[in-house]
Amino acid sequence: MKRFVVIRVPDGGRPALIGAPYDFATREDALARIAEIEADHRKVHHTFLCVLEVEPPLPQALEREGVLF
Questions:
Q1: What is the pLDDT of residue 29?
Q2: Residues 4 and 53 sit within 8 Å (Cβ to Cβ)
Q3: From CA 3, how far away is CA 23, in angstroms rounded?
Q4: Residues 54-58: contacts with CB within 8 Å, 24+ apart?
Q5: What's residue 42's pLDDT?
Q6: Distance from CA of residue 57 to its chain's centroid?
Q7: 12-44: burial string, b at 16+ Cβ within 10 Å, e else
Q8: Chain-centre distance of CA 37, in angstroms?
Q9: How far is CA 55 from the centre of its chain?
Q10: How confident is the model at residue 31, as a pLDDT?
Q11: Please, which residues have CB within 8 angstroms of residue 44's CB and are 6 or more apart in sequence?
């Protein structure tokens, strides 16, 4: 069963999970979380948020993708 996690990708570093909640059953829920986070940002950051589709177990999936957790 696929899961959708929200990660942050800095300009000069490795991608990492955002703060909880970060794991969602649908892509739409993950995108809603990104919209919620970005609604409060008023200035440019040197990172972006994106959705990563993974196959559980989560720790192994993130390791394969090179995502810090």
A1: 98
A2: yes
A3: 7
A4: 54/2, 54/3, 54/4, 54/5, 55/1, 55/2, 55/3, 56/1, 56/3, 58/3, 58/5, 58/23
A5: 73
A6: 16
A7: eeebebeeeebbbeeeeebbebbeeeeeeeeee
A8: 11
A9: 14
A10: 97
A11: none
Taking the C-alpha atoms of residue 22 and residue 17, their distance in angstroms, rounded to an integer, is 7
- Quote the CA–CA distance of 19 and 8 in Å, as a whole number: 10
Please list the rounded mean pLDDT of every run of 10 residues in the chain (69 residues): 95 93 98 92 82 95 93
Q: What is the model's pLDDT at position 4?
A: 98
pTM score:
0.88
Q: Please identify which residue in the block is written with the tokens 């589709």.
A: 53
Q: Name the token pair of 54.
A: 């993974």
- The pLDDT assigned to 43 comes to 72
